[in-house]
Amino acid sequence: MHFIGKWFITAIATAVAIWLVPGIEAYGGAYVGPIFAALCLAVVNVTIKPVMQALGLPLTILTLGIFALVVNALALELASWLARNVFQAGITINGFGSAFLGAIIISIMTAILGGITGLD
């Protein structure tokens, strides 16, 4: 049940990012796109993102943590690509700037909603 709650929160955060960031759009439906993008983002965050963070640790230390935002943007790009190619639904991202801003918005929204619901 905990996973479903976090998935729902991430789907809401993804929908907010679609609404706020001009370069991110839903693909495959206004509701279905964020749901499958959130699922793929959860899979990427559990499997590939820790490896990316470990490899980028020297740059993260050197930039005082700002490179972690780049890792989040790359994870969002990868999740977007994965959702579109596996489920034929997800989000499309027009550029790295949109992915960067979208990753920041999704991170902030999941932190806020997770704190409110107790699923953080």
Gist of the model:
The chain has 120 residues and is mainly alpha-helical.
Describe this structure in words.
By secondary structure, this protein is mainly alpha-helical. The protein has one domain (2-117). Helices cover 75% and strands 7% of the residues. It has helices spanning 2-20, 32-47, 49-55, 57-62, 67-86, 96-117, and strands at residues 24-27, 90-93. It has a two-stranded antiparallel sheet. Helix 1 crosses helix 6 (96-117). The radius of gyration is 14 Å and the shape is globular. The chain starts with a helix and ends with a helix.
In one word, what is the shape?
Answer: globular
Report low-confidence residues grouped into runs of 5 or more. Answer: none
Order of helices and strands: HEHHHHEH
End-to-end C-alpha gap: 13 Å
> Helicity, in percent?
over 70%
Largest sheet: 2 strands, antiparallel
- What is the strand content? 5-15%
Please give the number of β-strands. 2
Number of helices: 6
Quickly count the domains: 1
Major sheet: arrangement of strands:
1-2
Which structural class is indicated by helix and strand composition?
Answer: mainly alpha
Gyration radius over CA: 14 Å
Mean pLDDT comes to 94
